[in-house]
Design goal:
310 residues, mainly alpha, 12 helices, flat, T2SS_GspF_dom, cell membrane, membrane, Type II secretion system F family protein, transmembrane
Amino acid sequence: MEELLSNLTGISITRGQLMLVGILIAVTLSVFSLGFVLSGVRSNINRRVDDLSDPEVKRQGSKVKDTLESISPLYMPKSGKERENIRHQLMHAGLHQKSAIANFYALKLLSFVVSLVVAGVLYLTLNDSSMLNFYLACVVFAGLFLPNIILRKKGKARQNKIRRGIPDALDLLVVCTESGLGFLAALRRVADEIYISHPELGDELETICVKVKTGVEIPTAFEEMITRTGLTELAGLVSMLSHASRIGGSISDTLREYTEDYRDKRNQAAEEIAAKIPTKMMFPMFLFIWPCFFIVAIGPSILIILKNFE
């Protein structure tokens, strides 16, 4: 490799210099990747502050986004199904910006390039290692699929945070509707109160209130929330609200019934998890506990038998 580069450039290049250049490129691309991540992961408060920021700063940020979107056809996949799947995962992770999918694929491309640089550095430093091919495959695999794994984990973490706040939100919603507030006013009050302990759920409820004020029907707004969050267990709430609005039933009674059903489902899910624990414990017992038991119980007898055969 050093001789090939020296012949091409006419400059004497050592392996150490190549390693330093590779490390420099890897660090530079890693900084850019970290910048993409930090720019995409922002809280709701930061986004509101940015809306009030200097127009010149916002214009410069929009130029970068426009540049990424203009060149996005070069690095984004052609499959519409794959793009739609990534778009749903980004929504589940709380990234609703129009340029989120372009930023994700740009980050994935940078991650792949960094993995290639790291693989090149490993090839130069561990040329004599018998595990070189394994290391190179692991590095390239991480560069290709690590962004997808992180995105999937972020989406599941946000779903769990929203799921933990739903029982409290339903209880508050029942109390507000039974006290005389209308459903939209009660939902707005719950969104303000729940934002302190469950900001993700508060954002979603606030989005529903905004959509309803713009003319979207309440069941449709909740269906869009299910699409954004991926929480399919809320489909029962949508159907019950739609049925109550059609027949003119009491919203508070409908919410109370759904709250009881939702608690029963949570208890059943907890019992199901508890029932699976003994089956899952069998594998650690086979691997760790039983071998030690057999060593203690049968080991002395085996030693005695071997000593008598000597």
